[in-house]
UniProtKB/TrEMBL annotation, chain A:
Organism in which the protein naturally occurs: Columbina picui (Picui ground-dove)
A single GO molecular function term of this UniProt record: RNA polymerase I core promoter sequence-specific DNA binding
PANTHER family, sorted: TATA BOX-BINDING PROTEIN-ASSOCIATED FACTOR RNA POLYMERASE I SUBUNIT B
Residue ranges constituting the Rrn7/TAF1B C-terminal cyclin domain according to the UniProt record: 258-448
Name recorded for this polypeptide: TATA box-binding protein-associated factor RNA polymerase I subunit B
Taxonomy, superkingdom: Eukaryota
One term under GO cellular component: RNA polymerase transcription factor SL1 complex
UniProt family annotation: Belongs to the RRN7/TAF1B family.
Ranges where the RRN7-type domain occurs: 2-33
Main location, first listed in the record: nucleus
Localization annotation: Nucleus, Nucleolus
Domain Rrn7/TAF1B N-terminal cyclin positions: 74-241
TrEMBL record, chain B:
InterPro entries: SL1/TIF-IB_Component (IPR052669), TAF1A (IPR039495), TPR-like_helical_dom_sf (IPR011990)
Gene name of this polypeptide: Taf1a
Name of this chain's protein: TAF1A polymerase
A GO CC term attached to the entry: RNA polymerase I transcription regulator complex
GO annotation, biological process: transcription by RNA polymerase I
Amino acid sequence: RDFNERCAQCSEVNWGLTDGGRFYCRSCHNVTERTREVINTEFISNTRVQTISRGSRNKEKTDGGCEWYVCEGFQLVLKKQAEALEALGVCPQMKDEILCNFWRLYLQKSKQAYCDRPDGETVKALPVCDSSTDVESEPETPSLLHLLSLSESEGDLQTDSSFVSSTSKVSASTSVCSGSVDGSLYFTKNQKEKLRMTMPMTLSFCYMALLWLREPMTLSDLLRFVVEGHIPYLNVFQHFPEKMKLYGVDLKIFCVESWPVYEEVYDKMLELAAFLDLPRFPDITDSCFLHPDMLCMKYLMEANLPDELHNWTCRVVKKISIGEADFLTLVPGNKSTRKVKYDVLAAAVIIVVLKLLFLLDDHYEWLLSDLAEERNTNNKEGRPYFEFKKWYKVIKCSLDAEQKKLDEERAKYQWRCEKPLFYSADKKSKVLKRRQMVVNLQNQFGKLSGSVRPAEKPNPSSFQLSWSEENTDGNCFHGHSLKGILQEKRGVLAAMNPDYWLCTVELCRERSCDHLAHYREVEFPQSYHFVLRLFSFLLRIQPSTIHDDVCLIEHKLFNKKLCKKPKYNTVIRK
Amino acid sequence: SSHEHKLNFQKSKEACLNYIQDAMLQKQWKRAAEFLTFYIEALEKDFSREYMGPSEIIWRIGSEILWHHSHNGMKEFNSFIEQMKTLAITRYLKVSLEHVFHLLCNGLIDEAYQTLSLAESWRHGEQTSVQDKEMKLIEAYRGLLDYYSWAKQKHILLKHGQDGFEDLSVEQEMHNCFRKAAVNLKEIIKIPGVWDPFVKCYVDLLEFYGDHDEARQVLNEYAYNSKFPANPNAHVYLYQFLKRQGESKKSLISALKILHDSVPSHELMIDFNIMLQKSKKRKKRRLGLEVIFAALDYAGCKENVKAWSCLVKQLKQIVISEKHLDWITQEWNSRRDWWPAFHFSHYLAKRNWQENESLSYEKALVAGILLGKDCKYFKYVSHQGCKAQVKRFRMLKKFVNKHNPVYLRISG
């Protein structure tokens, strides 16, 4: 969209992006030499930018702090997060270009920088990311922020904050309510249309950038790394420079007291992409990590299921066309297409395949397992036949142990940061005293329990459960064969199971309901609940989210059959 | 948004508390201490007005853990408690009081006394009514410890007296303690409540210094003032006092009557029965029978030889005189369908004979009268007794056989 030149060959303006980041004409497939980076800097210089060089920052406040704006704080947060992602192996382009540019675009759209303010008010721009092109070197006269005059302020603020629109210097109107200049403005109702920045949204930004670059990291991976501490999130503000003092309302903005929820981050990401008017994201093709075929492979390995199941997942993906680039690729703002959660989708595909092969009605799968066991006694091939029962035992054991560990870790989680925070200066001594007492008590009881405070984080790893074929205890099912549960039919191996039960007969309408379907454990077979639980643990999300996608896939798979026969029961023949 | 499953600070701490609770219930102190370490940071967010906030939780749980599992013993415990006292200033008195209990349990009387004195002099702003009560308790316990010192001095004095020494300073000290103790003890027992140890000590003091009237009044108040919760011990103390004072049987009996109504199984019921049996009044003797039967209804007296012998005495007296047999019938009516299994089973016959011959003797007589000579208890025991050639068993057999017609009349 940004690129408005006419195509050399066909004179159309209809550009898309190749995998290599080059623009190509959709009408005639002419590939240009122009790459995205070039475009981005161009478009930025198209807008009027007002910048300030660092030197003219206003005099420091009495407590040694300087003035800073909330969005500067968030910029620092994003920077830290990008650095951490780079350390995890994400390509540097993400930090140096993509995230940077998304952020600048956001600032522009939300009128916090890089734009003219209405009524001639101008905003200070920010020191931008280090490695980008030198936008800040343009000299401009310093401009001041004129605070908006407010008739009411939110009840959140402790003291009466009646900001008056004035031409006076910013420092004079900074109230004690926050260390940042505009912290107290943050909770006013005006901000609603501008998509106010929040801590969870920083993760939305990160994920959006990862998705643009099609990095091999799903949203669930990202959030897991956050919780495990590999990506700064909780208490990230303690890395702000000394001069940026945080207190009052800033705490409400930057201090998190809860872990980000997958759905929240994802929905915000969509909102953000639409807000920024981004074009269609780079295509997700079948060589991408995020493609269901790839992710299924990964999750099959992690779930210790036979590799042969991958053939089946690919078949399902193909049959319902969810492997198409058009289905998978994000087109922001397009309300008609359903947005894809790649990790959830892949998990759901696997579950559907399991249902196809094993039925999972708490009855058939065990019968089938016994049959496979029988066949195994005469099995002359090198590989054993897959037995559901054995797999279930192994996985249940591991899953229960891991879940228990996770639950204990969650109970032991330490939320406070090294640097104590004060809501206001007069509370400082009280807070410090408390902090001292907390430290003393922790030492005392820590000694009693003999435990060493865990200082090391677990190494970041893409796989949480790993199974090795070299293990002699036979716990690895990757190489097992499905022949034990399949039968020959017209020269093709087909599932023995002729039945299937639908999770739901009808999908909820998106407009009236948040979900496609509703999941309640008691209404479904235990085996189904078990596999949901397994993937729910791996992805760290609620089972209902996966259940939604399972329903969606089933709907796509069987809809035609259902429509043909108006009368049906929940168990259908394939 | 309705993400109730979202893990936040509060949920995380709640989960932590659950783990602590589980560990404590299973007495896994190390594990409890471990999780408590992770809970402690909740103090920094203690803005709550909840019923029990983090600071109180940490005080209570921490005390419990340190009490059961500590490397440095009382030293560590004390330093922890001192921190807790400063943590929540409104709770200072309560924490001090519980600290005192812990010290007393460890025999650290002097330290307990110091802590109490310190707490007594503590003032902070307006005293709430709760703190008022806590202060009264603190003063009362100090009074108790003063009594304890008094008792020690008294003991020394008596000992010296025996050895022929005179010790004015000890005597002086003793009287000092008395004065201090008396003031505080008197105060606390004015408030309706259960103050057994305080009452006992106070009465002891009063008796020593000869103020029997005051003592009597205190005990009467304690036992009969309806504002005070019903307390059988109050009547026991009163009875013991009256006995010491040599009061008339009449007042002793009236004191014990209430005890019989509230705790029929009390061991004093045996004394009660003895007194009643001897009475000239028929009503009293009748009551005596009721009292002793009631006492034996309970498992506590099952193997009490004295109780049985009291019953035997009265039954014998009635049987021989053949007067008031209906009394026996009346008492036996409500018991005839369960006493045989409760007291007179074949198993018990064997056991009683093996373990306690006197017990079996008394019981056998009762069984013989109430159940006749053919009941299994009597048959077994008397047979064993005669076999062993113990004289009184032969007498027993004769007696029961002689009075068998009485049994027939009782059993109706």
